[in-house]
Amino acid sequence: MKFEKYHALGNDYLVFDPQGEEKTFTNDEIIRICHRNFGLGSDGILMGPLRSDIADFGLRILNPDGSEAEKSGNGLRIFARYLHDCEIVNTIPFTVDTLGGVVTCEVSSKLNSIAVEMGQVSFHSDLVPVSVEGHPREVIQENISVGGQTYQFYAATIGNPHCVVPLPEISESLALQLGPELENHPIFPNRTNVQLLKIIDRNRIRIEIWERGAGYTLASGSSSSAAGAVARKMGACDQEITVEMPGGEINLVIDDSYNVQMTGPATRVATMHLYEECLKA
């Protein structure tokens, strides 16, 4: 089986084109393919292009634990770059159908920048989803307890769930400590992505990321979008925001209705061939 490997600021994906066939992978096969010792190694698999009745292309995003993600900003930039490399698209905007909604992508002529209209961020408990006491509402500056400590958090969705925790200082070690507990906290029925957020100034933030189904991650487009929207909701940032992550930077434009345009790179790494022997237990 042939895979194309790309990374977006260190967040790496394998693109698998089923060539019009109804191809699927079992959970165990996904885990093995993504494994960094027993497989090709990646933060997930992008399966596409697939047929869609509502967009130019369909896309499935498979996490390395075998689960399926609704949306991935880095994955979408990688998929857009792959389509361009295959000469399926050019610099004209096109649409992609994901579980988290239809998005519009545009590849620059120099391939060094890919823009994705990520959609609208919502903080409403019913949409994230997140369980709350009393009536459904926006979940803003509420308390959550993990590891014997209580933190304030914002719940957000941009087609997939996020738990954003603003802090004066953040680190990889703290993300590794809090990420697993917050991801699997009982108030999130579908689990959640986690971002630790530090405000730098009105146009710059820094985040550490724990990704649902993947673990500690160097960069994430949807996490950047959610954290940027929270920074705007806090009144701490303006429309144009640069997001610093361990893997690099993404640029956002977030309007007053929390619609997010994300711009960042995607890098081609290799063509890889997987032998069936690898999938044996």
Description of the molecule:
Helices cover 16% and strands 40% of the residues. It has 2 domains: 2-113 and 266-279, Roll (Diaminopimelate Epimerase, Chain A, domain 1), CATH 3.10.310; 142-262, Diaminopimelate Epimerase, Chain A, domain 1, CATH 3.10.310. The protein is globular and about 50 Å long. By secondary structure, the chain is of the alpha+beta class. The chain has an 18-stranded mixed beta sheet that branches. The relative contact order is 0.17.
CATH topology of the largest domain: Diaminopimelate Epimerase, Chain A, domain 1
Order of helices and strands: EEHEEEHEEEEEEHEEEHEEEE
Number of extended strands: 18
Distance between the first and last residues' Cα = 18 Å
Low-confidence stretches: none
The number of helical segments is 4
Topology:
Blueprint lengths: L1 E7 L2 E6 L10 H8 L10 E6 L6 E6 L5 E2 L3 H13 L8 E5 L2 E7 L6 E7 L21 E5 L2 E9 L3 E6 L5 H12 L9 E9 L2 E8 L3 E3 L3 H13 L6 E6 L2 E7 L4 E6 L2 E7 L8
Name a few traits of the molecule:
about 280 residues, alpha+beta, Diaminopimelate Epimerase, Chain A, domain 1, 2 domains, 18-stranded mixed beta sheet, 18 strands, about 15% helix, globular
Give a quick summary of the entry.
This protein is α+β, with helices and mostly antiparallel strands and 281 residues long.
